[in-house]
Amino acid sequence: MLEDNVADAELIRFALREGGLVFSLKRVDSRSGFLKELDANTPDVILLDYALPGFDGFSALTLAQENYPDIPFIFVTGTLGEEVVIEMLKSGATDYVLKTRLSRLVPAVLRALREKEERVERRKTEEKLRKSHEQLRALSVYLQHIREDERIRISRQVHDELGQSLTGLKMDLYWLSSRVPRQLRELHDKAKSMSAHIDSTIQTVRRISTELRPGILDDLGLVAALEWQAHEFQKRTGVHCEVTSDLKEAILDEDLNTAFFRIFQETLTNVIRHANASRVVVQLKKERGQLSLEVKDNGRGISEAEISNTKSIGLLGMRERAALLGGLVTFSGAPAKGTTVLVKIPLNRPKEQQNRKHENSHRRRPRSRSPRVKTNSRRRI
């Protein structure tokens, strides 16, 4: 209690006791005594007189709030004007009680203590939610990397092992067909048909391997990978796709490359499924410490309901990929005027987000070229 009047202090003590409170109370009447008592014994409630000689209640409130913002502050004072009361509450006071109406003091103290407990519990709950969110975000990061690692592993196995097996099979077929008599035309035709089928399967292996993890993304960088993906998209769907970029760096951070490329893939998938567009314009640029990717189509346009739909897993996945790197994905559209997807991710991210790059720097990337067959002296297969 910050109170310079001993008689008033005793009246306040009496009112608290009559209200049924069990308490201990320490009265101080100076700035030094106030600070000393705060350091020695952190109180549950601070009762302050508004005006003291040489040290006023507002100064005490400011001092206490710097180190003990959760402690309730109740002014117990004489007659106050409305403006003073408003200013007092704005400054952080919990309540005020007039000395002429001390019957309100115990209810005010009980309410202040109850609100304090609620604030503490709410803060604990928010802290638990924050930690839970951080754990889920860390798990999401881990799963994203695991998924990319698995893609790389499968891509490598498909490319190397299956590709080599098919190459060996084609060489064996050539060896066999070269020993079949020329007059057995039917067998030679069948061998040619099998050889063509093997060539087609090798191309399929190459396509599957590239779709799992395009080697061009790691070898030539993000811009080349976006251009390749746009070309494949245009070839497959007939939708014109144009990519422009002012990015000078060929090879960026691995996580950035992966995030932008996967978001771009998902965006093109949505264009195929929903947009009914005939043209897609893509722009990649670096501005104000951020890398931004803008994808515009001239399709039907995405609606607000579709943007906010929690079942839109593709959109949620895009947002999450960017959020994992401290970035943001926004969607906008208008009926019959197309959809715009804008991705922005900072180039300079916290060190903990970049550690993964160094952890994975030793990983061997699958080659992007197709399986090839050795050449003999007479014929190249």
Task: Give an overview in words.
By secondary structure, the chain is α/β, with parallel strands linked by helices. The chain is 56% helix and 13% strand. The strands form two sheets. Strands 4-5-6-8-7 form a five-stranded mixed sheet. A three-stranded parallel sheet has the order 1-2-3, sandwiched between helices. A hairpin with a 2-residue loop joins strand 5 and strand 6. The radius of gyration is 36 Å and the shape is elongated.
Brief rundown of the structure:
With 381 residues, the chain is an alpha/beta fold. Helix content is 56%, strand content 13%.
Write the layout of secondary structure elements.
Blueprint (H helix, E strand, L loop, with lengths): L5 H13 L12 H10 L5 E3 L8 H11 L5 E5 L4 H9 L4 E4 L6 H73 L7 H28 L2 H5 L2 H16 L2 E6 L8 H22 L3 E9 L2 E8 L6 H5 L4 H12 L3 E7 L3 E9 L4 H9 L22
Parallel strand pairs: 1-2, 2-3, 4-5
Antiparallel strand pairs: 5-6, 6-8, 7-8
Q: Gap between N and C termini, in Å?
A: 96 Å
Low-pLDDT segments: 356-381
SSE class? alpha/beta
Please work out how many helical segments DSSP would assign.
12
The radius of gyration over CA amounts to 36 Å
Q: Overall mean pLDDT score?
A: 82
Structural shape: elongated
Strand order within the widest beta sheet: 4-5-6-8-7
What proportion strand? 5-15%
Order of helices and strands: HHEHEHEHHHHEHEEHHEEH
